[in-house]
Amino acid sequence: MKKFVAASAIACAAMPALADSSDPIVLTLHDWSGQLITTTLMGEVLVAAGHNVEYVQADYIAQFAGLETGDLHVAMEIWETTGREAMDAAFATGNVVSMGETGLMAIEEWWYPSYMEERCPGLPNWEALRDCASEFATPETAPFGRYLGGPVTWGGFDEERVEALELDFEVVHAGTDAALFAELEAAYQRQDPIILWIYSPHWAPAQYEGSFIEFPPFTPECYSDPSVGVNPDAAYDCGKPTGPIWAVAHAGLLESHPDASRAIQNFTLTNDDYGAMVAEVDLNGATVEEVVAAWMAANESTWRAWIAN
Questions:
Q1: Best label site of 5, 33, 36, 307, fewest CB within 10 Å?
Q2: How open is the CA angle 292-296-299, to the nearest 5 degrees?
Q3: Which of the four pLDDT bands, split at 50, 70 and 90, describes residue 1?
Q4: CA atoms of 266 and 29, how far apart (whole Å)
Q5: 40-69 pLDDT, tens per residue?
Q6: pLDDT tens-digit profile of 158-204?
Q7: Sequence ranges of the domains in the chain
Q8: What is the DSSP letter of 215?
């Protein structure tokens, strides 16, 4: 794993850490802009409070192994939609703990642009996809429709959902977050057929006119018990869960860095602020560091309250 040592470029008055160890706090970085922003924001706040911070690139799901051993300390975005099972398994070891909700509320689901409703009457009801999968086909997938999923590391059970709901779709995964949205932009401009993984908070649902597919409502039993749901022989025959985005940490951080731990637990951000910062990076070419610095300058009373004793 590649390490990045924090060298704060943000002009903030340093505040000395109190009871915490001088050992670095290791925060994980993933492969989407929003997570880079929330993690850098938390890291810069900790640096402003006098803590030593390192950033390490890590896989979204595989990172839990490092959090359990203590090689990694903090993950700022575990989405209820895709990370709940891995998070619960890590909590069960006793080595990983919840640091609470981040204030962000998550939706991750199949999404289509509104112009596809003329080609596939009945949308956004998922059953319409049974009758018009070919309208979403590409030369590579015909006669099956093409569903563009997120990077494989995001999880999400899309292949299982296609099989359980007996949809004539082939799941194709985007290599990166940027590639996912670049393909959406290209298809939208040409009015080409597309259905893909979209998540919120993000700028895309506001930038483009479209809708999330309405799958059968999620229940935990739908994922764990094949007899539950519209297909009595298969699990995952429902939509993805929705809910909070969580911060989690190695349990030892609470003892080694109690002040930093309280700051992480105090972190809160709105969906609107998150989406606006992601748009600045993805659409306007700003760097993560620039948007974090701008947010901190405009919201100093907010983040200083996170580190107040």
A1: 5
A2: 135
A3: very low
A4: 20
A5: 999 999 999 999 999 999 999 999 999 999
A6: 999 999 999 999 999 999 999 999 999 999 999 999 999 999 999 99
A7: 3-104+244-306, 106-224
A8: P
CATH level 2 (architecture), domain 3-104+244-306: 3-Layer(aba) Sandwich (3.40)
Residue 68 region, left (φ>0) first, then alpha (ψ -120 to 50), else beta? alpha
Judged on CB neighbours under 10 Å (0-12, 13-18, 19+), 49 is buried
Q: Which of 240, 242, 291 is nearest to 269 (CA)?
A: 291
> What gap in Å lies between CA 26 and CA 29, rounded to an integer?
10
CATH T-level assignment (fold) for domain 106-224: D-Maltodextrin-Binding Protein; domain 2 (3.40.190)
- In whole angstroms, give the CA distance from residue 190 to residue 196: 16
